[in-house]
Structure formats: structure tokens, C-alpha cells
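User: C-alpha cells in, sequence out, please.
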């Protein structure tokens, strides 16, 4: 028990450091607002009322697993949902803060425990690319992919997958920021919403489990370790660097500019090979 208490204290200290570093960056770049929740427009906030809990959904940063946890907290059986073939992303049991009247939104935002998880912006981008363009997703693999191919290819080789390089050039040229690769600062508005806990993908299980204990979740509820594509290696920094090697210096610089605030606010180091 001693060790547990000790490491929990240690974790709380790390949380304080993350929060004050975020706060300092928000101030430095003049992104802080009065923070009374008058102007919160993000549609990414999932809410669970029994434990007064809000998690900001950042795609490619453990989102599906948070959905599973919240359903479990709501006493909804994940196994039943799976049996009924209801996707974790497609049913109306999960509530967003935005669904409530404005005044109620303010109350919820002020009094609930709010958490946000982040990931290295380029690792997240590679993860989104692999998920959306290298797997059979109709919308991304066909509709979005075709518009990218039309832009960058002559009528040859239309069957080949969109390459990471083409995808990145598309983002840089169009600033078409789909929710899966939109900047984390835009998805979760962290200079305006005072998050109680800031989790990181690299420490997601420890962060998530400590948060679950904090909100008083039943002891047996743990953050799951489920991957969307079970047979593939997770996108980590080593793999990310492999993808980055296919980009030009100019494209990498462009990505830094595009995700600059995410790097600065959440303290991710700038990739400096190449
Ligand atoms: C910070 O933002 C406020 C409001 O948007 C603006 O009035 C002010 O000039 C900005 N300050 C700096 C240093 O950019
Ligand atoms: C959760 O569901 C189980 C099985 O349906 C039920 O026995 C239990 O009372 C429920 N718990 C809560 C807190 O609703
Ligand atoms: C769920 O989907 C799988 C394959 O997609 C199918 O084999 C199974 O019959 C479905 N189950 C139900 C209950 O619809
Ligand atoms: C497309 O074809 C034109 C003319 O043949 C050529 O100049 C151009 O470089 C080609 N573009 C690409 C992306 O292959
Ligand atoms: C596209 O990528 C997927 C996954 O890597 C691969 O299985 C498929 O063969 C590729 N398709 C083409 C036309 O290269
Ligand atoms: C996963 O990574 C290991 C080590 O880099 C590699 O040997 C293996 O082939 C990879 N597996 C897949 C499915 O890509
Ligand atoms: C990334 O994962 C591969 C296996 O999938 C592993 O070989 C490699 O060491 C990992 N890199 C990092 C930085 O963890
Ligand atoms: C990099 O580009 C080469 C040549 O186009 C391709 O064969 C390879 O799969 C690419 N690597 C990655 C990680 O996208």
C-alpha cells in the first residue's frame, strides 16, 4: 500500500507539472481566455454523469478504449454491444456535452472531472494515415483517396494506395483538417477548458487507471489494451521516423508549422533527424 500511495503522489506531481507547463505555454502564446466556459464549442467532449466525468476525444489517442470504459461505467455491457454488432462509434448511448442546453453545459464543465489525452503530433498523423488509407475504409480509402490521387497523379497508377507523402502534401496544400488529424488544440480547446488531468499516449494505462481511481470507478474497471488492427504493430516513434524519411525537408517543416501549437503546448520534442 505504501508504494501505491507513493506512486500516486508522484503521479499527481507529474500532473501538476504538465498542467502548469500547459498553462505557461497558453499564456506565452496568448491563447488563454477568461475560462468561465461561456464560449466552449468543441463537440469532442464525452460525458458520464454517475462519476461526473468528461473525456475529450482525440482520435488516434485511445479514443475507442475510452468509449469502452465509459460504457462500462454506465453499466452497459460491451459484450452485448459486440454481439448486437453495434460499433463503439455508432450508437446513441454516449452523450456529448454539446447535446445539453448552454447553461447546463457550463455547470457540467465547471463541476465535472475533465481529462484530455495527447500524443506526439507526427506519430498521431502516421497512425491516422495507416488507419484511414491502408485499411478498407470506404470514405477515406475511396472518396478522400480519389480526391488526393486526382490532385497529384496523372491517369496512371490510380489503383495504388495514397502514399504518406501525397497525404501530407494534400494537408499542406488544402489544410483539410478532418477530425482524425485535426490539431489537438482545436479538438479540445485546452487553453480555455481547465482539464483536471492531462494524459499522454506513452503512459496511457497508468494515467487512465489513476484517473479511474480518482473518479471513484469500481476497482475492477481498468483501461483496456485493445487495438483496432490486432495483427499490426502499433505506430510508435520508430515507425513514425520510417514514414517521415519519405518526406522532403520542406514537407516536414510544413507539418511542424501545421502542428506547431500541439508541439509547444504539450511539450513534444521536434524531430530533428533528416
Ligand atoms: C492577446 O490577445 C488579445 C485578445 O485577443 C489581444 O487584444 C492582444 O493584443 C494579444 N496580445 C499579444 C501580445 O498578442
Ligand atoms: C448493472 O447491471 C447489472 C446487470 O444488469 C445489475 O445487476 C446492476 O444492479 C447494475 N448496477 C447499476 C449500478 O446500475
Ligand atoms: C455480426 O457481424 C458478423 C460479421 O460481420 C456476422 O457474422 C454476425 O452474424 C453478426 N451478428 C449479428 C448478431 O448480427
Ligand atoms: C503528368 O504528366 C505531365 C505531362 O506528361 C508531366 O509533365 C507531369 O510531370 C506529370 N505529373 C506527374 C505528377 O506525374
Ligand atoms: C494498399 O495497402 C494495403 C495495406 O498495406 C495493402 O494490403 C494493399 O495491397 C494496398 N493496395 C495496393 C493497390 O497497393
Ligand atoms: C513488427 O515489428 C517487428 C520489429 O520491428 C518486425 O520484425 C515485424 O515484422 C513487424 N510486424 C509487422 C506485422 O509489421
Ligand atoms: C516500436 O515498435 C517496434 C516493434 O513494433 C520496436 O521494435 C521498436 O523498438 C519500437 N520503438 C520504440 C521507440 O519503442
Ligand atoms: C516510402 O516510399 C517508398 C517508395 O515510394 C515505398 O516503397 C515505401 O513503402 C515508403 N515507406 C513508407 C514507410 O511509407
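Assistant: Sequence out:
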Amino acid at each position: 500500500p505504501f508504494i501505491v500511495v507513493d506512486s500516486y503522489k508522484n503521479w499527481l506531481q507529474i500532473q501538476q507539472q504538465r498542467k502548469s507547463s500547459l498553462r505557461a505555454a497558453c499564456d506565452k502564446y496568448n491563447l488563454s481566455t477568461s475560462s468561465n466556459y461561456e464560449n466552449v464549442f468543441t463537440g469532442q467532449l464525452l460525458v458520464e454523469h454517475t462519476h461526473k466525468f468528461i473525456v475529450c476525444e482525440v482520435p488516434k489517442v485511445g479514443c475507442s478504449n475510452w468509449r469502452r470504459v465509459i460504457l462500462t461505467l454506465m453499466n452497459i455491457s460491451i459484450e452485448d454491444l459486440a454481439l448486437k454488432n453495434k460499433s463503439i462509434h455508432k450508437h446513441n448511448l454516449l452523450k456529448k456535452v454539446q447535446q445539453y442546453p448552454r447553461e447546463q453545459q457550463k455547470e457540467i464543465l465547471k463541476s465535472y472531472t475533465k481529462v484530455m489525452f495527447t500524443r506526439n503530433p507526427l506519430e498521431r498523423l502516421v497512425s491516422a494515415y495507416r488507419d484511414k488509407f491502408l485499411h478498407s475504409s470506404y470514405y477515406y480509402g475511396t472518396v478522400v483517396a480519389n480526391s488526393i490521387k486526382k490532385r497529384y497523379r496523372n491517369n496512371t497508377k490510380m489503383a495504388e494506395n495514397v502514399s504518406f507523402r501525397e497525404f501530407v502534401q494534400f494537408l499542406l496544400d488544402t489544410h483539410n483538417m478532418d477530425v482524425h488529424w485535426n490539431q489537438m488544440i482545436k479538438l479540445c480547446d485546452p487553453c480555455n477548458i481547465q482539464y483536471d488531468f492531462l494524459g499522454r499516449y506513452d503512459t496511457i494505462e497508468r494515467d487512465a487507471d489513476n484517473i479511474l481511481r480518482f473518479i471513484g470507478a469500481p476497482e475492477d474497471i481498468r483501461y483496456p489494451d485493445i487495438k483496432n488492427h490486432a495483427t499490426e504493430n502499433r505506430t510508435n516513434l520508430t515507425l513514425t521516423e520510417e514514414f517521415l524519411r519519405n518526406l522532403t525537408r520542406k514537407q516536414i517543416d510544413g507539418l511542424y508549422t501545421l502542428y506547431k501549437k500541439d508541439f509547444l503546448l504539450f511539450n513534444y520534442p521536434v524531430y530533428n533527424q533528416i
